[in-house]
Every structure is written in structure tokens, then in C-alpha cells.
Design a protein that fits this description.
By secondary structure, this protein is α+β, with helices and mostly antiparallel strands. The protein has one domain: Aminopeptidase (3-Layer(aba) Sandwich). The protein is built from 6 helices and 7 strands; from the N terminus they run E-H-H-H-H-E-E-E-H-E-H-E-E. The protein has a 7-stranded mixed β-sheet with strand order 1-2-3-4-5-7-6, sandwiched between helices. A hairpin with a 3-residue loop joins strand 3 and strand 4. Helix 1 packs across helix 4. About 30% of the residues are buried.
Length: about 160
């Protein structure tokens, strides 16, 4: 499958937000409950926040686009290295290399010895398998996934070569 990866602009920002919310609703209720999932979407996925994040030059707000359709989204920022806060792929495009390509695009922009890291919700087995396949190593656990208290996660990292 062919797609282009670049920094999100214009309507792609809202499309990335929509993709993120659809991904959350299809994945996380079984792990953290419907109510918690919806609260996080309201609190942490506002249109205004996504626009602000996309405008931060030092952050990476990337989209994978097939034609005019956003099929993947990655958002990362500096925090003890490069922290991947979001990586979401359209469910109909999973297994087609979109997530791998988004991470590779980010990693190519990083200096050698830079720590790229993220946390994955405990029980999100498909995501855990994905990150291990693309070279991320389990380095710990947290009870505050993405800074959200009470949501357990596994911490993964990859040191750029």
C-alpha cells in the first residue's frame, strides 16, 4: 500500500484527531472501561489541543495519508528523549506497514543515542507485539500511562543508532 508521511496541516489535524478517537473507542474500553475512555477523549483529544500540538515546531505531529485520507497518526515530543504520545492506525489499514512507517519516519529525524520511548496500556497485547517487532525493548512499568494516574502501562524504549 502506498501512502505519504508528513507533518499534519489544515484539515489533516482534525482527521488525525478523529482517527485517534475512533482508535481509542475500538481498543481501550475493554482495557480501561467505556467511561474512562470517553473521559480521556474529552479531556485530552480536543480539537484545540490537537491544533496547538501540530503548531509546536519542536514536536512531531505526523500523518500517513493515502490520497486525501489520513490512515495513520503519530504525535511525539521531547521528554527524557523523544516520547511517542500517540500512534494510531486506521483499523482497516493495520498490518499494512502504516505504524511501522510512521515510527521509522520519526526515528530517522533523531540523533544517534537519542532515547525514543512510549508506554503501552497493560493488556494491549497487539500493540506490545508490534513495538517489540520494530525493535522497542521493555524497560519498566508505570501506573500512570501517558501521565494518567491509575492506568497501568508497560514502558518501551529504543535507543537510536
Amino acid at each position: 500500500m502506498k501512502f505519504d508521511i508528513h507533518r499534519a496541516t489544515g484539515a489533516e489535524i482534525e482527521a488525525a484527531r478523529d482517527l485517534t478517537n475512533r482508535s481509542w473507542l475500538s481498543t481501550y474500553p475493554s482495557l480501561i472501561g467505556e467511561e474512562t475512555t470517553r473521559k480521556i477523549i474529552v479531556d485530552r483529544h480536543s480539537s484545540q489541543l490537537f491544533v496547538e500540538q501540530a503548531s509546536r515546531v519542536q514536536d512531531r505531529f505526523l500523518v500517513a495519508v493515502d490520497g486525501a485520507t489520513v490512515v495513520g497518526h503519530l504525535y511525539a515530543f521531547q521528554k527524557e528523549g523523544m516520547y511517542v504520545d500517540r500512534l494510531h492506525v486506521d483499523p482497516t489499514r493495520k498490518g499494512q506497514g502504516v505504524g511501522r512507517a510512521l515510527l521509522a519516519h520519526l526515528e530517522r529525524q533523531l540523533f544517534a543515542d537519542t532515547r525514543c520511548w512510549l508506554d503501552v496500556l497493560t493488556g494491549s497485547d497487539a500493540a506490545i507485539r508490534f513495538y517489540e517487532r520494530v525493535g522497542y525493548k521493555r524497560v519498566g512499568e508505570t501506573d500512570a500511562c501517558g501521565g494518567l494516574a491509575g492506568i497501568p502501562a508497560v514502558i518501551y524504549e529504543k535507543i537510536m543508532e
